[in-house]
Amino acid sequence: MNDTATVRAPIDLTAEIADVGLYLGQVCRVAGISKMQLNYWTTKARIPTAGNKQRIYHRQALEMVVLIKRGLDSGLQLAAAIEAARVAVN
C-alpha cells in the first residue's frame, strides 16, 4: 500500500475520541438544542457530566442527548424520549 492509499483509507475515530469531552455549548450545537433545553434534560434525565466550573459531556452523555432529541422530534413526550434513550444507550 502506498502513502496515498494509506491517507485515503477510511478511519474509525471511535476509540480515539471515546474520552473526549464537549462543553455545554458544543453539545447544544451538535444536538441542535438550546442551552436551556440541555440544562433541563441534564437534570431531568440525570445525564452524567464532569467538570467543576463548566459541565463536560462525554460520548455516552452526548449520545443520550441526541437520542432524546430524536425521540422528541419523532413525537414522544420528554419522559418517553428519556426512557427510550436510556434503553438505547444501555
Structural notes for this entry:
- With 90 residues, the chain is mainly alpha-helical.
- The protein has a single domain, classed as Multidrug-efflux Transporter Regulator, Chain: A, Domain 2, CATH 1.10.1660.10.
- The protein is 61% helix and 4% strand.
- The protein has helices spanning 3-8, 14-17, 24-31, 35-44, 59-73, 78-89, and strands at 22-23, 56-57.
- It has a two-stranded antiparallel ribbon.
Task: Show the helix and strand layout.
Layout: H1 3-8, H2 14-17, E1 22-23, H3 24-31, H4 35-44, E2 56-57, H5 59-73, H6 78-89
Antiparallel strand pairs: 1-2
Quick rundown:
The protein is mostly helical and 90 residues long.
Distinctive features:
90 residues, mainly alpha, Multidrug-efflux Transporter Regulator, Chain: A, Domain 2, 6 helices, 61% helix
